[in-house]
Each structure stands twice: as C-alpha cells, then as structure tokens.
Amino acid sequence: MSTFDLTQRMAPFLDLHLIIPLLEFIEPRGIYDEKSLTEMHRQLLSKTNMIDSVIETYNGKPIPAAIEAKKKQIIKERDELKSKVDSVVAILEIPEVKEMMDNNRERDGNVRILEHLTQNHNFTVDMVDTLFKYSKFMYECGNYTVASVCLYYYRNLVNQADPNYLNALYGKLASEILLQEWEHARDDLLKLRAYIDANPFDTEWELVTQRAWLMHWALFVYYNYPKGRDEIIEMFLNQQPYLNAIQVLAPHLLRYLAVAVVTSKSRQKNSLKDLVKVIDIERHSYKDPVTDFLTCLYIKYDFDEAQEMLQKCEEVLSNDFFLTAVLGDFRESARLLIFEMFCRIHQCITIEMLARRLNMSQEEAERWIVDLIRTYRIEGAKIDSKLGQVVMGVKSVSIHEQVMENTKRLTLRAQQIALQLEKSRQEKVKVN
Amino acid sequence: MSRFFRAKGDSDSETESSEDEVEDQKVNKSAKFRDDLDFMAGPEDDVKRVVRAQKDKKFDELKSIIKQNRDAKSNKDLNRLLNGFDSLAKAFKSSKNVFQQQNVTIPRFYIRSLVEVEDYVNNLWEDKEAKAALSKNNAKALPVIRQRLKKYVKDEDLGKLIADYRASPDEDGYETPEDEDDDDFEEIPEAKTEKSPGKQADKAADSDSDSDSDDGDSSNWSSEPDTNSSDDEDSVTKMEQLRRYFLKKEFREDSKDDKKGDKRKRVIKVKEVVEDDDDDSWTPVSREKSVVHFDPKEEVTHDVMIKKLNEVMSARGKRTTDRNQHVANLQKLLEVSEEKNLGLGINVKISFCIISALFELNAKISDFMEYETFMKTLQTVNRLLDLLIETDKVKLSVTYAEEDENLKDDTQEYRIQGSILIAVQRLDGELAKILQNADCHSNDYIEKLKAEKDMCQLIEKAEGYVELRGHLKIFDEHEVCKVYMMRIEHTYYKYQDQNEKEVGKTMDYLCNKIYSLDKEKRLRQRAMLCHVYWLAVHDQWHRARDLLLMSHMQAIVDHSDVDTQILYNRTICQLGLCAFRHGFIREAHQGLSEIQNTQRAKELLAQAVGTRQHEKTAEQEKIDRSRQVPYHMHINVELMECVYLICSMLLEIPHMASCEFEMRRRMLSRSFHYQLKQSEKASLTGPPENTREHVVAASKAMLNGDWKKCKDYIVNDKMNQKVWNLFHNAETVKGMVVRRIQEESLRTYLLTFSTVYTTVNLKKLADLFELSKKDVHSIISKMIIQEELSATLDEPTDCLIMHRVEPSRLQMLALNLSDKLQTLAENNEQILEPRTGRGGYQGPGSWFPGRNERQGDKQKGSGGFQGERRGGQGQDGKRGNWGSQGGQQRRHPQKQRAF
C-alpha cells in the first residue's frame, strides 16, 4: 500500500515543520510500520526546537537526559534573544511605523523605511539581523504566530538583495501555512513566486530547484483554498518553466496536477489535453493510479483498465494528505469523464455495462445517467429502459455542413486581418 | 612520332628555365658573369628575383603559346596549331623590341618551337596515311600552316638560327618525363634553399667531410668558366655553352636528388645502427651525428648534458635538419644520460623532446604518421607516463617558463616545461588519421585498429595520472577536459554487452567531469552528444531523449563547428534507431528524417565525401577528408534507411488512406513517396531484391489491407540478414514491428473500406488481423475520438456502425476549396502576426522543437497550390527573422551542415 504514498518523495522539497503534519496524517493510516514511523517522527522533531513535542512522543516513557538538557538550553537561548528583540519590536510597533510598513511598496526596495527608522528611532542595522534570528528561532520552536509577525516586519525592512530575504519569504509562507491562514499564505506564495521568477539565482539549476520547492509548498495552500485547484492548473501546467521543473525534478507532482485538472469544472477541457501529453511523456519516470487512469482513458482507450485504476485511485486519494478532501469530487468527475468518452464513441450502450464500468449498481447508474442527461444536456442521449440501453442520437455530419463549418469563420478572420493591417499601417504613418 | 615530340617538348621546358637564367645573368653580366661558380650555383635564385622585367613577361607569354601549340600538336588539331602559330608570331614580333632593348637575342626555345612545328608539319605532310586520316578542317589547315611557316622563316631571317639549332639539337640527356619535370620545378626552390645554406655552412665550418658527389660536381664544373670567358663575343655559342652549363646543373640537381635519397636511406640505416648501437659502417654521413659525441676526456655532467641537449634541440625545425637523424641524436643522448645516471629530470626532459621530435617526423600536418612510428611514439609516451606516475618528483607542466625549469637539482622537485597530456592528445589525433587513411576493408585496417586498444589504455592511464596529480595544479584545465573527452570519444560508440552498467557509470562520471570543468562549452556540448549517443546505443531511450532536450542542442547546433555538427547528426540517427527499437515510430521517423530526407546521409554523417557536390577546391576536399569518421565508428546507413522507410510506411500508409479524397496529399516523408512512385512507374515489378524494395512492396500490401503479406515482406530471411539481425534484441524488435503492422493495417483497412461497410463486427475484425478484441476496440475508439473515422460503436451487438458517405464530386471540390481557404487564412495570419519567440524548451511532446515545426512549414508549402506556395516560403523567411531559429535562416546553414 505504501507504493503510491508520496510522503517520502515529497519530503526533500519540504521544510521540517511542513513534514510534521504529513507524518501525523499518515501515522493512523497504517501504511508504514508504526515503530519506524514514530522513530522518524521523533528524529524529525529533535532537529527542531520543539522539545515539548519530542517529549510527547515518548508517551510517558523515561525521557533521555540529553533532551532535558537541550530543553533548558533552548529556553535560555530564547530568553536571551527575546530580551534583545523586545526593543526592536517596540520600535516597529509604533503606529506611525506600522502604517508606513503597510503602505510600503515593493518597488522602493524598503530603503525608505529603514532610513526613516535609523533617523528617528535609533534603529541600527544589527537590529534587523536580531529580528531575523529571533523569528527563525521562534519558528523552530513552533511559535509560528510570532515568527510570522516578525518576518513580516523583517521583510519590510530588508532589501531584496539581502541573502536572507528569500529565507524570510519561505519562513513567512511556512508560518502562515502552519497557522492555516490561507489568505495570507496565498499572498506570501505569490510574493515568493514573483521573487523566484525574477531569477536572482546564479545557476539555472538553482532556479529549477526553487521552483520545485515552491510548487510543493503551494500544494498546502491551493488544496485548502477554495479556488486553489484552478490556480494549480494555472501555475503547474500553463507556466512552462514550472512544468519543466515538474518534469525534471518532481514528476510526482503530476498526481496533484491530474487531480486538479480532473476535478476542475471550468478549466478541464483545455487542460486535459496538455496534461495527458505530459503524463504520456513522463510515463516512464512516474506513474500512479491517478495518472494511469488518464492514460488508459485518453491514450490507450482501454475502459476496463481505466475502471480498475479508478478503483485504485480511491485508495490512493484517501491516503494522501492533500487529496483526501477531494476524493468525492474526483470520483464524480472521473465517472463523468468515462461516460463522456462512452458517449462519443458509442451509439448504443447497455446500462448494465455502464454500471459495471462506473462502479455502481444498475439502478444507481440509471439514476445517475438521468441526472447527467438533465444537468449536462448531453445531446440526443436517451434511455431505452425496456432494453436497458442508452441510445445516442447519431449526429453524422453531412458534407455541406462540414463545408459550412470550415468556412464559417473565414470572413471574420479575413476582416480581422484587414483590421490589423490597417492598424499597423496607421502606426507606421504615425512613426513617420 | 608522339614520343619524339614529347621528348622534344620536355627538353624544351628545361631549356626554357635554363635560358631564362641565362638571360638573367646577361642583364647583370658585366660585373657578375664571370664570377666564380659558387656564385652560379648558389645565389642564382636571388638574381632571378631581382630581374622581373618585361622580358620575363614576354617570355611567359611566348611559352604559354608554345605550350598550347604543343597541346594542339598532340591532339592533332591543326586548326588550333595554325592559330597558335599566328599568335606566336605576333607575340614574338611585339616582344622583339623588348628583346632588343635589353640586348637579348632571339630565345632558343622560340627557335626550337619553330623547328618542332616545322618538323611536325613536314612529317605529317609526307605521311600520306596520317594525312588521309585527318578531318576535313584539319586537312585544310595543313597546307596553310606549312606555307605560312616557310614564309615566316624566310621573312624573319631565322633560317640561320634554325640551321644552327638543327646542327646541335638539344641532347636527349636531360630529357625527363613531364611529371617528374614538374616535380622538379616544385622542389627545386625548396631544395636549393634547403641545401645551399647547409652547403655553405659545410664549407665554412668543417670542410673535411663534405660528401664526395658534391666534389665530383665541382670538378665537373671547373672547366666551364674557361669556355665561357673565351667565347664571350659570340653570344650564340656562349649561350650554347651556358645552356650546356645549366644542363650540367640539371644533371647535378638530379644527382643531388639521388644523393638525398641515398642519404635518406643511409639515415634509416643509421637509425637501425643507433638502435643496435655498434657497427661503424655508416660513418660517412653524419656531420650532425657527431654532435652527440661527448669529449671522452670531459666528464658528462648535468651542465654538459644540458648544453648538448640545447645544441641538438637548436637544430629542431630547421630545414637542414634531418628529422630522423634528430630523433636518433636525442635517443643517443637519452642513453648517455641514463648510463651516466644523470637523474630523472633530464631523462624526462629528453624523453619529452624525443616525443615531440617523433611527432615532427612529418612535415605536413595533414600527413598521417607511419604506423610503425606511431607505435614507437605510443611506447615512448607510455614509458614516460609510467615514469611520471611512478615518481612524484617530476613535475611536467605547461605553466612553467623555460627559465624556471629545474633539470639537475635533485634535492628539489624537477620542474619541466611541457605537457604529457597534449602528447597523448596528439597521438590520438594521429591514430585517427592513420585509420582514416587505411583501407577500411582490408586486414591492414584491422591490424591498425588494434592500436586503438592500446590507445584507450594509454588514455585511461593518462586519466589516472591526472587524477593522481590533479591536486598539484600542474595541469591546465582545458588539457584535463581534453583527456576526459578523449576517453569519452573512445567509449561512446561502442556497444557493451556485458558490463554495460559499469561502462555506463564511467560514462556518467566522465561526462559529469566535463560538465563541471569545461568553461568554453564546446567540449560540454560534445560530451553531452556523446553521452546521448551512448545512452541511445544502449537502449536508454528516455534518458537519452531527455538529455538531448535539456541540452538545447537542436537550437544551437547550426552555430557550432562542423565536427560537432557531424557528431550531432550521428547522435540524432542513433537516437532515431533507439526510438525504433523501443517502438516509438513517430519519434524514430522524426529523428531519421533529418538525415534521410536529404539524400546525402553518408555525407552528413561524414562517412563518405560528397561527390555530387559542386566543385570543391582541393583544400576543402582535404578538410572534408580529414573529418571523415573512421570506418569502425560508422553507422550502418542501409539499416538506417530501411528503418526509416519502415517508420514512414507505418505512419504514411494509414495517412494516405485517410486523405484519399483530398486533392493533394500532405506528405510526411518525401523520400518514401519518392520510392513508392518509382516502383509505380516501373513497368514490370519483380519480386523485391534489396531492403528498399521489400519495404515498398510491403507498403503496397498494407495499402490493400493485407497485413500478412506486408508482414512477410518485412520479416523474412533476406531482411533478417540485412536488417533484423543487426539489432541486438532482434526478436523483440521484430515482434514490435509485426504488431505495429497489424495495427496500422487495421487502421488502413477501416479507412479504405469504410464506404463499403455499414456495419462491421468487431470480432471479425479481430480475427482478420489476429488482434485481441480489446485492442481492436481501443484502436477504433482512438480513431473515432480523433475524428479520423466517422463511425460509432454499438455496444450490445459489438458492431462498428459506419457513417461515412462517399462525397459527390462537387462536394469534394467544395471541401477542398474550403480547406485551402482555411490554409490561406492561416498563412495570412501567420505572416501578419509575429509569433512569440520560441527559443528554449518547446514544451512537452515535441522532441525536435525548431526543426519539427520547420518541417511542418515545408509540408504546408508543398500541400497548397502554386500561389500559396510562395506565401508559405515568405512566411518561412519571416520566421527566420522573428524566432530565434526560423526556416530560411536555418535551412541555409543546414545545407552547409555537411561540411
């Protein structure tokens, strides 16, 4: 069952703190050996400063002394940092400064605020670093609220060229994600993406890696944000650089992309073709039931296998941290896809076979089809309930219709060309 | 007759040259003429250079006409001879003034040419048979010329001169066959400059041991000056004498040549002798040899040795230096040095010098090394490399200046200028040249190919050395890259059956090294291509394809050097074959059509020099030859063609069936259509013979929906032998092909006969094509979805219901018209609308971004009617301007791709 679990493949692209929810999600599913998973979890936590959580994992068993010692040390460190940072925060929370920050624009490069602060409030450059250290520390401790606030300040103070700027952006995004503040997280995500797309990196490789990271983090946001799935399509599929990053580094993201496309209502038609193409290309390096389902349906035209895959998909989806929520949606949409395909190919289908293919009882299927015909107005589809068949109206295109179809838009196109020519001519005249 | 004339002609050119010189001499004769003979022998070159007067021009003019006449004579073209004679007379008349001014008498060669013509004409006149054989024109010309000649001689009062000449015609002695003669002409200046300083030096430095033949010469000459001086007044006789004198000189030149040859032979002997290290029989030769001798009283120390070495080395590259001798000297030095135990530093230095000397045995870079020399050099390099690996006391690096060299101080490490890596590299180049020049079908080639193995070992060793000493920073980065590259280049084309994984790892390792080390990208590109090639050969299709796509090679290859382009072509072909083995027909077709559609596959792969090309200069041809891929690396072109045609068949036949009603078919593959058409034209179709005919026959069978026949044409004993057995996984490939044939035949069948059926039972189809029902279902579904087939399935009865109606003629025309209108509109839009740039990765699926699209353009162009074609091309041109790589711009360089 663990074959299709992606936690391991995703982990390298995620922050430690982001992996924790994944692990917590997986633990009760019993896909992996429980012991090793707990051990894993503990190790993970011990790399952070969340000592209390580490202690929790021992579940009342005796706790090693080293951890106790570490806890003390961390508390001490925290107090130290806090004492330093208090004054900084105090300055930054002056209403006037706050207002300035809120009205800040990216373009100014944050220089103005910093200038203002150094002139009027004894602000030094060291303080900025302290702020960053503190927020990082707090993040490590699991205090995401503080971290996110501090990083917000930091981001507004520091120049984009600063080496920590990118880290701050990531930190802020992670904090918001862990706080489940999706609106904020989305804003941060966009900022981060804009920053990465500006390509401040030395090598192409780094750029690709950053994009891969970004996409993984985006999953948290987009699968929890109402319109997120369309945005996934927009970002993953329609943006060539990101699609390349998927192909090069993280083909497993195709699963999320595929689910997004299948369940999306508005974007499905156009995206499906592209998606199938990509899946076909990457078939050798990645496949799972979700992508296989699409392969069977759109490349092999093998409905039986598609059906099998659909069944497997349910399992996979229910065990996926991001996708459990959309399982119902997916199932419904996938069935619709199959049915649509059937309608296009067949003239006459027995309901019994359909029911089998769609994983339903016959009666259920009949009801479902009736619903479909009503809601989607499938042209010419009728149920012959006596024979237990669905009959499609034959819509053979006669040749003169075909000719008409072909020539219909020609006038319009010609007109457009003429208009365009006229426009360019005028422009030329203007230039001269 | 002809012999006579030829002989005369040759002697003529000889006299010309000598005459020439005489004239030259005469101009400054007052002072110099009677100078001693040394002057005559040596610096005549200089004198010639000083006087470049009208006279010379006139002489040249005359000579060229004479030459034409001679050609005319040998062709028996009397008309031409007549014209030639007239122009000769004219030219001579005009030159007369010049001659008089410069106090030159009528040149002897002119007289002789007259005599020749006269003789020729007279002979012909008397020889009745020959006269009868003459053509009408020529027969007419003969008396005319005879007449005119007589008159001319009389008019110009040349009778005496001619009589003189007849009295003492040019001797046979110095007649040399024409070609040799030419050679002489080429060689003489070189030989002279080469010889004369040396001779002078000889005389100046050590007069004792000049070779005997030279002496003989001078004694020969000694009588001459007297004659010259005595007959001063009579210019004709004097000239005669002088001519004789130069005649002698010709002899001398010959003998000298002989001597040179002798010397060479002797040197070879010397070499043997040196190797044997005894036997004094060769003593007479070596002046240079003596250099190596150390003063027996003096103790051989480092300094003495270094001095000696410098002395020997100073002779390097000079014309006078015999290269073989040079090597021998150095070897002698090495022996002495080893004998006296002078330390590693000096040994390495000398060895290194020997290696360079061995490389320099060939004067021209385009010449290839003798195989024996090559083996010897290989051994020397090998030994030196062993030595360097063994000890870390010696540092050999190009970064040292000559002054920093430390050859003697053994307390420190030895520092020596030079690079063993470059030596290895050069050796590799020589091997390639040797193989290029060997006859690839002979055993000789196989013999020589054995050296390749040694070479590989050497390179491997060099690589080990680099890695061992890499931390010392004695290597240039580029050198290091080259070593890795060499190893790659010796690996990438070899198919490994057993230890594929191991070699694959090495390949990855080497390529990664280059990717990280190379700064200037050229090697990186090459390494990448080699890597792709290797992966393709080893059936790692996906990796190979991805690597190629990521490298963006297809976008930049047109701007890279020719060798890289050749490698690119090779790689693409190999990738195409790999795709075929994996059953990716479309991709294979794309890859191979790049090369196959050009009709010049062999040239593009550098496996043959183009013949049908427009005239190339000799130089270009030489370059072309130097680029040829050695035979053992060749890609089987016949196999490639066959694969390409099979791919075309699988793609094209269903396509043809589907556009049956379109007026002009769109072609996917031009050369395939060409083959089809050819076979249609043939009045009599016999059973197929070669692979090509097999595929064509199979295509026809497929077009009729007869898959079994098609299969039999593709898979049979003949084809097994020529095609399938050449694949290492023949059975799977065959299986794949048969399966594809079944599928495509089914498609063709359905498309062709869709108008005949209203319903077809799926089961029957499955039986007919021996496919499972599921497969049939899936194929049909695909066709319906892609709107190739207007039909629907009836699930309860398992039938395919056809909806296709045969269009009436009017309807068909209307359809075609609408199609064309549409393409017209599209073209217009494309012209108007600049496309967004299309550099970089072209998105998923297209594994040939730029090129692929370009092909599309071509199809459009040929698919439309006349007026439109122009549009299509214009659009090509435009694109060239817009996109980073567009049609026209790209097509041009591609033509040059060959070389």
From TrEMBL, chain A:
Keywords for the protein's UniProt record, in alphabetical order: Cytoplasm, Initiation factor, Protein biosynthesis
Record's keyword annotation contains Protein biosynthesis: yes
Keyword Cytoplasm: yes
InterPro entries with a match to the protein in the record: eIF3e (IPR016650), eIF3e_N (IPR019010), PCI_dom (IPR000717), WH_DNA-bd_sf (IPR036390)
Molecular functions (GO terms): translation initiation factor activity
Residues of the signal peptide: none
Record-annotated membrane-spanning stretches: none
Pfam families named among the record's database cross-references: eIF3_N, PCI
Annotated compartments: Cytoplasm
GO cellular component: eukaryotic 43S preinitiation complex; eukaryotic 48S preinitiation complex; eukaryotic translation initiation factor 3 complex, eIF3e
CDD domains per the UniProt record, alphabetical: eIF3E (cd21378)
The PCI domain, residue ranges: 221-401
Main location: cytoplasm
GO BP annotations listed: formation of cytoplasmic translation initiation complex
Family under the similarity heading: Belongs to the eIF-3 subunit E family.
Chain's role: Component of the eukaryotic translation initiation factor 3 (eIF-3) complex, which is involved in protein synthesis of a specialized repertoire of mRNAs and, together with other initiation factors, stimulates binding of mRNA and methionyl-tRNAi to the 40S ribosome. The eIF-3 complex specifically targets and initiates translation of a subset of mRNAs involved in cell proliferation.
Subunit structure: Component of the eukaryotic translation initiation factor 3 (eIF-3) complex. The eIF-3 complex interacts with pix. Interacts with mxt.
PANTHER family: EUKARYOTIC TRANSLATION INITIATION FACTOR 3 SUBUNIT E
Listed name of the protein: Eukaryotic translation initiation factor 3 subunit E
Native source species: Caenorhabditis brenneri
Lineage, top ranks: Eukaryota, Metazoa, Ecdysozoa, Nematoda, Chromadorea
Automatic annotation (TrEMBL), chain B:
Residue ranges, compositional bias (Basic and acidic residues): 189-206, 851-860, 867-879
Ranges of compositional bias, category Basic residues: 889-899
The entry's keywords: Cytoplasm, Initiation factor, Protein biosynthesis
Residues covered by the PCI domain: 631-807
Subcellular location: Cytoplasm
Pfam families registered for this protein in UniProt: eIF-3c_N (PF05470), EIF3CL_C (PF26569), PCI (PF01399)
Molecular-function GO term, any one: translation initiation factor binding
Compositionally biased tracts (Acidic residues): 12-23, 170-188, 207-217
Record bears the keyword Chaperone: no
Region (Disordered): 1-29, 164-239, 830-899
GO biological process terms held by the UniProt record: formation of cytoplasmic translation initiation complex
GO cellular component entries: eukaryotic 43S preinitiation complex; eukaryotic 48S preinitiation complex; eukaryotic translation initiation factor 3 complex
Similarity remark: Belongs to the eIF-3 subunit C family.
PANTHER family: EUKARYOTIC TRANSLATION INITATION FACTOR 3, SUBUNIT 8 EIF3S8 -RELATED, EUKARYOTIC TRANSLATION INITIATION FACTOR 3 SUBUNIT C-RELATED
Subunit-structure text: Component of the eukaryotic translation initiation factor 3 (eIF-3) complex.
Protein name per UniProt: Eukaryotic translation initiation factor 3 subunit C
